[in-house]
Amino acid sequence: xxxxxxxxxxxxxxxxxxxxxxxxxxxxxxxxxxxxxxxxxxxxxxxxxxxxxxxxxxxxxxxxxxxxxxxxxxxxxxxxxxxxxxxxxxxxxxxxxxxxxxxxxxxxxxxxxxxxxxxxxxxxxxxxxxxxxxxxxxxxxxxxxxxxxxxxxxxxxxxxxxxxxxxxxxxxxxxxxxxxxxxxxxxxxxxxxxxxxxxxxxxxxxxxxxxxxxxxxxxxxxxxxxxxxxxxxxxxxxxxxxxxxxxxxxx
Length: 251
What we know:
Layout: H1 4-22, H2 24-39, E1 44-47, H3 55-60, E2 70-72, H4 84-91, H5 96-103, E3 111-115, H6 122-133, E4 137-142, H7 144-149, H8 164-167, E5 170-173, E6 181-183, E7 192-194, H9 196-217, H10 233-244
Parallel strand pairs: 1-2, 1-3, 3-4, 4-5
Antiparallel strand pairs: 6-7
């Protein structure tokens, strides 16, 4: 008889397989944008706009095997360790997040990855709209299925009622189902075991891997971190730190 461990494993694998099978063309298009940005010596901005979505930024930033020129938009007001309930309140305040892009110097032609499976709140939509106003290229990692399932009058929504997938230039569907949690336990009404973080991280790492592959095939050395916890890591990373430490605010 299958238990909750079996069901979580099986359900998450189904969703990961859907990303792998259905989102390749979108990932390819987004990787073209990122590769072009690196060849132009640009910074890649990443925004996980609220709650647990901020882990998307941590997943890509200063990560062994990941791209160096990642500029995470770490806004304390929407991060859980500065107050979980406060983060929910702030991510619903219109115009708050659009001003944050000033501080992080998002410019025309820059790519910005906005990674949030939910894709509906004010912080998310304002950031996307402001980025587009500046001429940045918005790559969304989100779940249109979830966004479309939320009523237009829900208090979590942006005043415009727009969804991230409707605003972005490129959309990669992370396949998060309605409600996020994916395991049913007999005798308990609420599903458990969330899926969004795994799905978003999986999608983002495929995007980064594809970007690096494209650069290598074009004869361009990609700026990639080596783990600082292995011999030679500090020495390998030193030149990237020297190149980017004054361009990436959190570095």
